[in-house]
Fold this sequence. Notes:
By secondary structure, this protein is an all-alpha fold. The protein contains eight helices and no strands. The protein has helices at residues 6-15, 20-27, 31-38, 46-56, 60-69, 74-77, 86-110, 119-146. The radius of gyration is 17 Å and the shape is globular.
Amino acid sequence: MAVFSGMDLRNWRNSKNISAEELGMRIGYDASTIYRIEKEVQTPGPKEMMLICDALGDRSKWDAWMRTVYPESYGRMVPEPVPYGLEGSILTLKSEMKDLKGLMQETIRDGADGKIDSVMLREKLLKELTELMSAAQGMIQLLTERSGGNGA
C-alpha cells in the first residue's frame, strides 16, 4: 500500500518551489494550516487534500493519500492501480493534449484582452492543464525509472 505522509507533502511542495503561503492562497487556506498538515498536527479532509493535489499538479497523489488515511474503506474499495507501460502513458498524454487542444480556440478568443473572463472556461482550462501535467509527470517518471534515473 502507498503511504503518503505530511513529510511527503512538504517535500512535494518544496520540490515545486511553492511556499506554504502560496499553496495556502491557491486553495483558500493560510500558511499555518499547510504547516499543521505537513507536521501531521491536522488532517485535511478528502476535499482539502484534493485541492492541495490539484494545486501542486498531480491528482494521482490524492489516491495514495486516501489509501493511507482511509485504508479500510477507500483502500479496500479502490486498490492501487496497476502501473501501465510506456504505451499506456503515451496514449494518456495524447488524450490529455487533445482535450486541451479542444479548448484553445475558445481560450484565444476569450484571452485576446490578456485575461480569461469566462469562469467556466477558466475552470475547464485549470482542470485540463492539471490533467495534462499529471499525465506528463507520469511519463517523465516512467522514462526516468526506465533509464536508471539519468533522464535519457
